[in-house]
Design brief:
Helix content is 41%, strand content 16%. It binds 4'-deoxy-4'-aminopyridoxal-5'-phosphate (PMP).
Length: 415
């Protein structure tokens, strides 16, 4: 019998958990079911090894030394950048800035772009489903400049109301900043359309790609995004490293975000001239081992392949959704037509925290609360959700253990 495409994909992912040492351990005396990858993913051995080898064989400070070891470290760091550049299909290494993560990527743009381009009476558009990291930096920039923050509303399924968005765009709009995939709902936003509509009026768009990059192919040129930012730790890389991609025309026009070593050309007490991209935005000693680890994560993901990852996870999310819908009293929050890897839900009459605590006792790790999206929770009139978030190292047995745990929690909490 010829195996179907889906069977082949399932087979491909069967052994993948072996690549993740942490997933071999127990939690609460049971094999761990890790369903909190939206908060931070686990790391494959290849990433751990790359960081280990870097420290054992190549560490020195980058960009400054003439000696061989410093050049080796610089090569390793810049190789990480080049790997990310081709991963997201950015036109050049100059447009790939190392930052601490998505939060810093957004803060960099909100601070630097807005200092140059935002004035009193201007507007910035975000959406109702943003993570606090894509709200607060813009609020701060607006407060500083006397500008206004406008918010694209969503419908009850958790989808952006695009007609309202189009009506918001005007001559005063200086930036549109939206999440590619929602961390609380799983909604995949129509980012191509968002960008196209903004560009028709000459407005740049920043995408928060924190929850998209681990699950789907991101091609910044195809998207035509002006800025795209994400965190290494959510895509199987280390913590403390992330990426801000920006179009050269914007990055050249923006002032540096932080001052210090590495980002200068010449310094006198009278005047400093700044270095070229990307170094202009990378003040101080960077996270060299982080860049090496992120590069290894990129190589690891590419070896598996985006198409397979997306197809496998779509099937798993569908299975999880169907199984969860069978549980009495469960209400799924976020039922958009296009979703990725997040299943948020509530048990009517039970507090999310209590459900999470019972699941923990059963060896199932989920997140409960507002997921750093308080305005979104307000929109749904709920204090928070229970969120199971998937990665390609999860499987149907994980879902079965989750659903059995949710049934048990419902029985315990509601009887
Ligand atoms: N945006 C989204 C959509 C996220 O899910 C997260 C992390 N939960 C962030 C931004 C912030 O990422 P980090 O904490 O890695 O900077």
């Amino acid at each position: 019998m010829v195996a179907t495409e889906q069977e082949n994909i399932t087979q491909l992912f069967e052994g993948i958990r072996q690549d993740f040492p942490l997933l071999q351990q127990d939690m609460r005396g049971k094999p761990i079911v890790f369903l909190d990858s939206a908060a931070s993913s686990q790391k494959p051995q290849a990433v751990i090894n790359a960081i280990d080898t870097y420290y054992q064989e190549s560490h020195a400070n980058v960009h400054r030394g003439v000696y061989e070891l410093s050049q080796k470290a610089t090569d390793a760091y810049e190789r990480g950048r080049a790997l990310v550049r081709q991963f997201i299909n950015a036109p050049s290494d100059e447009e790939v800035i190392f930052v601490r993560g998505t939060t810093e990527g957004i803060n960099l743009v909100a601070s630097s772009y807005c200092r140059k381009f935002l004035s009193e009476g201007d507007e910035i558009i975000i959406s109702a489903m943003e993570h606090h990291s894509n709200i607060v930096p813009w609020q701060m920039a607006c407060e500083f400049a006397g500008a206004k923050l406008r918010v694209i509303p969503i419908n009850d399924r958790g989808e952006l109301i695009m007609e309202e968005y189009e009506q918001m765009l005007n001559d005063r709009t200086k930036m549109v900043a939206v999440v590619h995939v929602s961390n609380s709902l799983g909604t995949i936003n129509p980012v191509e359309e968002i960008i196209e509509k903004a560009h028709q009026k000459g407005i740049p768009v920043l995408l928060d790609g924190a929850q998209a990059i681990p699950h789907m192919k991101v091609d910044v040129q195809k998207l035509d995004a002006d800025f795209y930012t994400f965190s290494g730790h959510k895509m199987f890389g280390p913590t403390g490293i992330g990426i801000l991609y920006g179009k050269k025309k914007w990055l050249d026009a923006m002032p540096p975000y932080q001052g210090g070593g590495e980002m200068i050309e010449t310094v006198t007490f009278e005047k400093t001239t700044y270095g070229n991209l990307p170094h202009k935005f990378e003040a101080g000693t960077p996270d060299i081992s982080g860049a090496v680890g992120l590069g290894a994560a990129v190589e690891y993901m590419e070896k598996i392949g985006h198409e397979a990852i997306t197809a496998y996870e779509a099937e798993l999310l569908q299975y999880a959704t169907e199984e969860m819908q069978k549980v009495d009293g469960v209400r799924i929050i976020g039922t958009a037509g296009k979703k990725a890897s997040v299943l948020s839900f509530l048990i009517d009459g039970a507090h999310p925290y209590d459900v999470g605590t019972i699941l923990d006792q059963l060896g199932v790790a989920v997140r409960t609360g507002h997921h750093c999206t308080q305005p979104l929770m307000d929109r749904f009139g709920i204090p928070g959700t229970i969120r199971a978030s998937l990665a390609f190292y999860n499987n149907k047995e994980d879902i079965d253990r989750l659903v059995a745990g949710v049934r048990r929690a419902a029985k315990m909490l509601l009887s």
